[in-house]
Amino acid sequence: MEKFRQHTGQVAPLRRSNVDTDQIIPAVYLKRVTRTGFEDGLFAAWRSQEPDFVLNRPEYAGASILVAGSDFGIGSSREHAVWALLDYGFRVVICPRYGDIFRGNSLKAGLLTVVLDQPVVESLWQYAEDDPAAEVTVDLDARTILAGDLRIAFDLDDYARWRLMEGLDDISVTQRHEHDITAFEAARPQWLPRTA
Amino acid sequence: MGMTLAEKVWDSHLVRRCEGEPDLIYVDLHLVHEVTSPQAFDGLRLAGRPVRRPDLTVATEDHNVPTENIDQPIADEVSRIQVETLRRNCAEFGVRLYPMGDRDQGIVHVIGPQLGLTQPGMTVVCGDSHTSTHGAFGALALGIGTSEVEHVLATQTLLLRPFRTMSVTVTGTLQPGVTAKDIILAVIAKIGTGGGQGYVIEYRGPAVDALSMEARMTVCNMSIEAGARAGMIAPDDTTFSFLKGRQHAPEDWDAAVRYWQTLRTDDDAVFDAEVVLDANELTPFVTWGTNPGQGSTLDATVPDPASFPDAADRASAEQALAYMNLQPGTRLRDIAVDTVFLGSCTNGRIEDLRAAAAVLQGRRVDASVRMLVVPGSMRVKEQAEAEGLNQIFLDAGAEWRSAGCSMCLGMNPDQLAVGERSASTSNRNFEGRQGKGGRTHLVSPLVAAATAVRGTLSAPADLED
Fold first, then answer.
1. Which residues of A touch B428 (CB under 8 A)?
2. Which of the 8 DSSP states describes residue B2?
3. Which residue of A has its CA nearest to B318?
4. Shortest CA distance to A24 belongs to which of A10, A40, A49, A44?
5. Which residue, B442, B434, B398, is CA-closest to B418?
């Protein structure tokens, strides 16, 4: 996973709430067995059917920070939703509340998902609509977002932040606790089911 | 202070706890399917890692598989490659697979309980959000993403932050014609699609105690639709009777039951949030919008978006009605559908088929409606055929198919066309979920069957007029 410390880019304002992962990437794009190349599936229905959809507007073509309404990423557990956002060029998503599984997937795959209150999200929408070319800086080290005169602090737990900043692979971290896992396994009840 | 059921299961699976880090939680059962696993197996291969516990891992083919002509190769090349990739991965890593055509193949959340692999007090994970289904047995069952699938394959553990706990108490008694599906749709409408966010829900109360295992699975299945990480129901005699004699039921049955009986929320335990619902007041529930929280009783009309006090809810309702092509004030019973889908991990079990068949017996599916009946597993199909249910469906003019996820998410050929409208016993009415441009109303199996007969959203009682 790529390290994430600080990112500066344009904002795409997505004024919608309850954006489920079926909207982020429809199921038909999940048939692939690769880990990359999902950008064509990102918001496929809205991009193909709504000429005014934010990602169809040339002034937001280079955006790398998505600011969405509440409950972004609810529904299906498909990590493809995170991969599609990354493959399309997004590095950060900002919204008031996420679907739990999507949030977990994003932080594991290197997409920074920031939680900000609805009024702050609305001020970022306004900022990006007043001047689509304006840039925003997301500083994970300082847990701060800079947008023009706005300076916004955000929370992210130390562990998730450390993993993102170091670009760490969870599995190698967990494997350091091999003896704990083995000890746990030795104490499991014998009657628990085995599939084989 | 006492502990909740969820906290008990969590604590008994704690491998490692360290201040400032997530807990390391052991996984008793890992269910795998073709869609969310290929990249995880690739990751293992790249790093030269084996599957740590193939004996706690099981795979099946469900999301992509066609439900007709299953003795033929899959016609869609991309789907076929994904299924073949799962077969290769399972062979290479030593994972037990129930492939298309196998007697035990079916939707991953139907076959786990059916094989007796899902048991009380276990931790169960799968790269699928409806893993919450298994919570019906008093298991802590979590849907996970592909990075976590790889983590579990490699280490048999997950890194997790403790969840908050919520109780949903359902008092009273369900009236005839009202089902587990109506309970969960009413819960979601009440707390919203984000209301359960960060919580594990425990369903309890007399109306939950009275439910069969199949019905409990329906309730727990849609916990994710309320935003919850999991749903659970404490195991009881209903649970034990369901498990007794199944293929993977414990050999040391008495020891297992003694442990299972301790898996209850202590009387002095405190939940972080509590919701109460009265079953006596519930009536058949349907959705009118494009998320599972946008529902109301069948007796109602399509709401006016202007009636929502919250601006985001108002905008969401406006967008939903535009997509669904519905006008405020329209009676829900006047909405005509062209497709009825009976199946899925929510309502594709034998009881669901029995309930729908009882409504359809001696009746005909309306000429304007195509009805698909897709059993949740090949065992469910076998059982239904032994009981003659298939003949009731066929005589009524419905299609009788083989097992799979099918039109719940339209990854196989069973899809809605642009503008088509369904009454569906599945779990999601998201835009395009059942096919690009398709429109979905979520319903119970009873409402699905009555709707198929009348051609408009209906309850069985409407057929007696």
1. 20, 22, 75-76
2. -
3. A16
4. A44
5. B434
